[in-house]
Every structure is written in structure tokens, then in C-alpha cells.
């Protein structure tokens, strides 16, 4: 079967995410868009994943818990997991590497995690949009130690993409990235984009507000709507990034 996946979504816990992005609203929007698998990837934290996973149990949407980590080099990288504990452990590893400074929610945006009824459970006082002190290599190692997938996000994007910060992309056997994510503007990138044959390519919405969910997806051919089914499709390159015109 062919499944629609959107594996890069921010909630109200990301400083740049809309307050409307509660786990409940994200799930409703994903259902309305007929998505099969989604991932919650807040900046440097997985604290809204427990609520989203719990809500998703009553639906036919599979949720991968995850994070979008900012490395020391200012490179954004998605960390996707099968199990909640793996994502939360990853968040606990990241947290002490973030710098504490007086946080102004008015200025940078709210960072709240909520329950199934959108009641605020708590807020994070460390600015989550900052770079952590770990290198990209350390982050990839730790994602893999937690059985996760390491996928640099929007590699073509200025500022926070891998190509703008590092200027190059080594072959997969060196980087050990499980895939790469290209943004919807990849065709504007001044950097050479790797061949689809060199790396499995994904594209996702990077949604920060509800309407954006599912506006850019990837499709996978798989026998199973599950983590295992997704990993197999990735391994066998049975995956198509929605940004490539031939795949639309
Ligand atoms: Zn990003
Ligand atoms: Zn993002």
C-alpha cells in the first residue's frame, strides 16, 4: 500500500510554533488531510509527544515521537523514534546542553506542553530554539544508540540547513544519516543537491500552524503502517519526496 507521511511537525512547545498546535489539533488536522504517519518534532524536546501518542491510540494514524535538534554547528537534524521513552531520553540528553538565560516568552514565543484537553501542563524555561553544545556527529551517534533515525532537515535552507553551515554533504557511509530532508524551496538552493540515488530523500511540511500540516508530504510503499514498515521502505528506497515534480 502507499502511505502519506508528514514527519516534521512542530507543536505549541516550539517557540516558533503556533499556540493552536496542541497535540489534539495536530491530530485532527492530520486526520482531515488523510495522513497515515506523522512525527512530532519540536525543537530540542519531546515533551508534547506523550499527549500526542496517547491521543493517537484511538485513531488510525501512527505517530513517531521525535525532536528537531539544533547541533553545535547550527544544523537542524530530525531524530525519529519508535518508542516514546527513546525520544524522551534523547530530550533529557539534550536539555543540560542548552544555555540558561532569562527567557522572555513575549519576545521568543510560548513553550508549553499540554494534556489531551489542551490544558497546559508546564512550560520550558530554557529557550528551545538555540543550538545545543553537541556536534552533529555526537547527535547522530546518540540517535542511533537510541534506535532512532537521523535525518538532517531542510538541508538546502539558508541559516539552519546542513549545506549552508557545512558547505558539503559527505557520502552516506561517512555521515550515517538515514535519509535527508529537502525543503519545498530546494530548487532555489545554490548548493548542489544530492542525487536521489545517493540518499533517500524525504520532504515534509515543517508545519508551525495547523493549516500547514500535510501541505508537503512523502509517500512510501510498504506492507505495514508501522515503524518497521517505514524503516523497511526507507532501506529499500520505496519512498518518494513530494517535492520532486515526477512524484506529484
Ligand atoms: Zn528546522
Ligand atoms: Zn522544523
Automatic annotation (TrEMBL):
GO terms for molecular function: 5'-3' DNA exonuclease activity; 5'-3' RNA exonuclease activity. CDD domains: PHP_HisPPase. Pfam families: PHP, PHP_C. Residues 5-73 form the Polymerase/histidinol phosphatase N-terminal domain. Gene3D superfamilies: Metal-dependent hydrolases (3.20.20.140). InterPro entries: PHP_dom, PHP_domain, Pol/His_phosphatase_N, Pol/histidinol_Pase-like. It comes from the Bacteria. PANTHER family: EXONUCLEASE, POLYMERASE_HISTIDINOL PHOSPHATASE N-TERMINAL DOMAIN-CONTAINING PROTEIN. This is PHP domain-containing protein.
Amino acid at each position: 500500500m502507499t502511505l502519506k507521511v508528514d514527519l516534521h511537525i512542530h507543536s505549541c512547545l516550539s517557540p516558533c510554533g503556533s499556540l493552536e498546535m496542541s497535540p489534539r489539533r495536530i491530530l485532527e488536522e492530520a486526520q482531515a488531510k488523510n495522513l497515515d504517519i506523522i512525527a512530532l518534532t519540536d525543537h530540542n524536546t519531546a515533551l508534547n509527544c506523550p499527549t500526542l501518542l496517547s491521543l493517537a491510540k484511538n485513531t488510525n494514524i501512527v505517530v513517531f515521537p521525535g525532536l528537531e535538534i539544533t547541533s553545535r554547528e547550527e544544523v537542524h537534524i530530525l531524530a525519529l523514534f519508535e518508542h516514546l521513552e527513546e525520544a524522551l531520553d534523547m530530550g533529557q540528553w539534550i536539555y543540560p546542553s542548552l544555555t540558561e538565560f532569562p527567557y522572555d516568552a513575549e519576545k521568543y514565543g510560548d513553550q508549553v506542553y499540554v494534556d489531551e484537553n489542551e490544558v497546559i501542563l508546564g512550560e520550558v524555561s530554557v529557550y528551545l530554539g538555540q543550538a545545543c553544545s553537541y556536534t552533529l556527529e555526537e547527535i547522530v551517534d546518540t540517535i542511533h544508540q537510541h534506535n532512532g533515525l537521523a535525518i538532517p532537515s531542510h538541508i538546502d535552507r539558508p541559516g539552519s540547513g546542513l549545506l549552508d553551515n557545512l558547505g558539503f554533504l559527505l557520502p552516506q557511509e561517512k555521515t550515517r544519516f538515514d535519509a535527508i530532508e529537502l525543503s519545498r524551496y530546494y530548487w532555489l538552493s545554490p548548493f548542489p543537491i544530492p542525487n536521489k540515488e545517493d540518499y533517500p530523500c524525504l520532504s515534509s511540511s515543517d508545519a508551525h500552524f495547523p493549516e500547514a500540516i500535510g501541505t508537503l508530504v512523502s509517500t512510501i510503499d510498504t506492507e505495514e503502517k508501522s515503524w518497521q514498515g517505514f524503516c523497511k521502505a526507507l532501506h529499500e528506497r520505496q519512498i518518494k519526496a513530494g517535492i520532486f515534480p515526477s512524484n506529484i
